[in-house]
Each structure stands twice: as C-alpha cells, then as structure tokens.
Fold:
Amino acid sequence: MVRPPLPWILVALAAVASACTFDPSGPSGAIDASDGPTADAIDATEVDAPVDAVDAPPIDACVPRTGGELCNGLDDDCDGTADEDFPTVGDPCDGADLDLCLDDVVRCAPGGAATACGDATADDDVERCNTTDDDCDGMTDEGFTGLGATCDGADGDQCAEGMGACSADGLSVVCTDMTSTTAEVCNGADDNCAGGVDEGFGVGTPCDGADGDACTEGVLECDPGTGGTRCTDTSGTIAELCNNLDDDCDTSVDETFDLTTDVLHCGQCGRTCSNGFGTTTCAASTCVPTCSAGANDCDGNPVTGCELRDTNPACAAATALGTISGDGSSTALAASGFGEAVYTVSVTENVTGNNPIRAQVTLTSPPGANFDLDVTCTSCGGATMSSNNATGDDVIAVRRSDTTGVGDTYTIVVTVRWTAAAACGTWSLAVAGNTGSGGLTCN
Structure:
C-alpha cells in the first residue's frame, strides 16, 4: 500500500472537521485516548486512512427526506426553510365549532402531511343579547324574542310603558318598564290602559258652581290643572250674553252691553262690524270701516267693511274679450270693472295689401281713482308697454307689419292695474281696431 503524503491527510481531516457541527475533541478540546491515534501516531505507524472514512459526510449533515417537506416545524427538504409548502400555517381560521368566528389558527395536522384549523376541541362563541355579533354570523342578538317590542312591567296598570331590552348578563330579554302603577286621571284618556275613560269621576253629572246666581247651568268636567273634576257652572263670573235673555238669572237683560261702541253688537245684539280689507270700529251704533291700500267701501254696507280693488288677477287666467280687425272696420270691444282685470284680444288681418294690423287700447279711470294700463304682445311673457297716467286716460297703440297674404293676426294681453283710489267707481276699457299710430310693435 502506498502511504499518502502527510500534508494530504491533514487537509482531509481539516475538511471533515469543517463539515461537521459537533466538536469531536469534547468540551475541553483535548483528544481522548479512545478517539483513536493522533495525527502524529498515524504518521508514525504508517497506517493508511481509509478512503471511505475520509470521504464520508459529517455525521450531523442534513439529509433531505424522501417525499419532500412535511408540516412539522422542521426543514425536511434541507432548503434552509421549514414548512414552506404549507403557507397558511399561523393564519386565522374558524375551528371545529358552530360559530363563524376566526378565533383559531392553522396548524400542522398529525403526521405532517396536511394542515388543520386548531385542534378538534369545539370552542363555540354563543350569541348573547348585547348588541354584538358574538357568533360572527352577520346578525346581532338573533334568537332573543321580544327584543325592542313594547311591554308592561310588574306594576298595577296595563300599560306597555317599557321595551324589551337585553339583560345585564346578556342571557335573556327583560322589560324596561320600571314605572309605578299609572293611575287613572280625569283627562279624557285611558291612563291606566284598562279599557275605560275617566272611570269613577262622574263626568257629565249636573252641578252648580261656586257663584252668586241662582242658575244650575253646569256639569262635572275634567279639570286639566288637577286631574280631578270641576263644575262648568260659571254663572256670576261669566259675562252676560247679548241675546235679549237674562243669562245670569239676575232679572236684567243684556245689562252689560254698550250697543253704541261694541263692534260685536253695534246698534243691536249680534250686529258685528267686519272688514276683511282694513279695520273697523263702532261709533254711535254704526260700523265705521277703515280701508287698507287697494280697497274701498263701495257696496254701501259699512257692516261688511271694504271691498278689494287691487285683486292681482293671474295673467294665465285672462278672459277672452273678443276679436277686432286690425286693418279693416270692426266694432270696438268694451269692458268695465271695479277691480283689476286681465283680457286677451285677437287682432286680425282682414284686408289684402300692405297695411299695418293696428289696435288702440284706451282705459278711463273713475273719478277719485287711478288705474293703469299694460299691453303685452302675444303672451303673458311677451314685450310689454305700460301707460301710468295719474290723470286722464291711459292709451296704448299696438301694430304688426303686414306681410304677404292674410296671416298676420296676433293676440294681445290687456291688463288693468289698480294704483290708487280715494273714491268708488268703475273704470271703462275700449279696444278699437285699425287705429292708433306708433306704439308697441308685435312682430
């Protein structure tokens, strides 16, 4: 046998030592006699080191497991990572229970070939009555009947004054009605929820109140201030009615009324001065109305007050006054009134030729009053001309240029507007065709 050179043996031993993770010399670093001959001894005895012994891997080297990685916390395939084929290990999961809560984690199953959620021990999260989704099923407090429903507590009435609510321990539903017994009160209501109203109070029984008259004119009624009853007999404190009767039983009739100044009984009992468009008084037994702006007392009856003249009629509700010829002869249209008014007038083309289709609107106000005039072309929102004369007539002319044929007919909207009036009277309106110059062009 050929002896290898000593340096080669030392290199081989060093390589073996570097590949192992244990220290063959022991804690002290000294070599035991049982560990075999030292390098010097090997060299001295010329014993060849077996090739297989030198080339064999260190006894602690990682040997890959046949079949690959298992789920066991070890690096079975010697790639430096444990359980890498089982990436869900440690993830939250729902274990073997009846709830839907992720309250466990993924672990290695026995044998290491697969994973499992937690262990086989059931740990159900039971739903409680606590406004929380304890079992993670997307619902809250399910299974607790009566929760939120009205209920009657342990009292002497029959009123559902409470509501079903969760008990303190979350195991049941309790009624929140902690009130004492609700007593019946005289108030027209069933306070104790017993099915009756004001029972035991004698409501409606005839009575005489604490007054100085001799009239029994009352009955028992509920007293809102006390919850008990009171007598409706107020004779002696109630005012005498103006009705030609001795209401307070004192042998006098209507003795407390001054028919000369009372607007409710002006001149006689029951004659009431009214005024929907101003104010009114009673003077010397006669109603005296004071009219607000836009109104006058024009019907000759001061008891009813003033009549409104500033009526603000809607343009859309205009009255059709009629049709006139704008280029020929026709009878003028006329209207009169007491308050404001809106009319429509059709101005027609009747004559062939190049003649303007014209009309003239004239408003005459009554003495002591001023009404103004508006004329609008075609529609309520068209071009408008106004005449606001304080005295004399208001006059507005309109026209349309003639075109080919007889298709130039148009409509105007005429509005009579109230401005001021110190006296009564009616205005008059005239719309004449084929007259007037200038004015509003209704093209």
